[in-house]
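Per-residue structure
===
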Amino acid sequence: MNVPATREDLMIVNMGPHHPSMHGVLRLIVTLDGEDVIDCGPILGYLHRGMEKIAENRTIIQYLPYVTRWDYLATMFTEAITVNAPEQLGNIQVPKRASYIRVIMLELSRIASHLLWLGPFMADIGAQTPFFYIFRERELVYDLFEAATGMRMMHNYFRIGGVAADLPYGWIDKCLDFCDYFLTGVSEYQKLITRNPIFLERVEGVGIIGVEEAINWGLSGPMLRASGIQWDLRKVDRYECYDEFDWEVQWQKEGDSLSRYLVRIGEMVESIKIIQQALEGIPGGPYENLEIRCFDRVRNPELNDFDYRFISKKPSPTFELSKQELYVRVEAPKGELGVFLIGDQNVFPWRWKIRPPGFINLQILPQLVKRMKLADIMTILVQDINSFSRLEYLKEVYGMIWVLVPIFTPVLGITIGVLAIVWLEREISAGIQQRIGPEYAGPLGILQALADGTKLLFKENLLPSRGDTRLFSIGPSIAVISILLSYLIIPFGSNLVLSDLNIGVFLWIAISSIAPIGLLMSGYGSNNKYSFLGGLRAAAQSISYEIPLTLCVLSISLRAIR
């Protein structure tokens, strides 16, 4: 984030998360001069799922159930890009009927995504009614998904070379009825919203993006087409069978929030046109290329015949990805969704890199909101990306590292300090006894303490023959637990304290009193009076010296804090 010049009247506001769709993965640090936005820094959150690394450790078939979590508003597109990559890598042909089914599912998913953009967008600028209307049509789309795939959101429907199952009986008629009904719903939205003077006042001329600016920032989808560029991958790349249908690319030239709204409304109408043509002209034939199950498979020639003859459960087909690389993309509702795939003649991808449209479109947000009003941020932000689920994996490791640094830093310091003290104690002891010592491990014997501890952990347990084995074994554990639990009150950072300090003082005293009990248990469990006397001595030492010393340190600390 760019740090603004120091002024006394500037105010920094933490804005977000704004609504459940964002649920912690994005917040904005906004610098305000009254109501005017001086600067804005988008900060990603820490919902980490590691989707790319999971893909590199799974076969394509195993990975398919994961991908719908990339973007749960456009699930069919994440499945499509996942199967398109190995299909192009292996030059796998998709049957015509399967391609038509894919197009129908993709356009239904586009409608569902745009609907769930429209409702929250209108709610964020003050209109609540459309938010309830959009769920009416969206539920009908999910009913169609459920009838065809068995699931409403996480479908796992696409397969390499086709789809998982054919359309059920009566599904085509039900989908045609939905298309007729949805066109009337879109007309209702346009009457309610498009010419509303309050709506126009909020979106017209807000967040303008020029042609060159849109290209330079790498924008795609409705944000690019609303700036006057007729770029749609369905027309450019001609994937699936989109070139067989009659439809138009929706675009506007003003580049403001109103243009982006009109583009999405027009795209829903065009999606209905594509679905109707696909339903009326869907051909017969197979819904999956079954021949690819026999190619590029990792087989065991000795067991394969036995598996297929005598085992009823057939193993899932596993495809070897040839040693080459390619980039595959589709036109998702928010823009270009791509995958960069590198094969290595293995069943696992060597590299699987996701290109999310939402994250790329988010880059221009600080530029758009500068010199705008605070109320315009939500108008522009929701236009940028209407779902933030794809931002999560982008900070997989870095967020966890910064969370753990305040914890590991003092622990590492304490460990190094203990090692240094043990080393110094051994050197002094050797000097007092006037002998050469001790045995050295590592430079200057620094690692000798670690060697002693490792030897202690892995040495053979010597248990008393007539003692209580259970008490003798549990005693040391109880003594150590009191030390570990004392970490509850250590303030690892200003906002990272496991227990309140005022309560933690008494908690630490109570926990510390457990340690002498463990020592007494070990001494008593040994059934040896000398060991028992040693346990009594250790307990007396803990009660007499360590606990009072701790109270002194804590009292000084509390005095300093006050």
Q: What stands out?
A: Residues 172 and 356 are 32 Å apart (CA to CA).
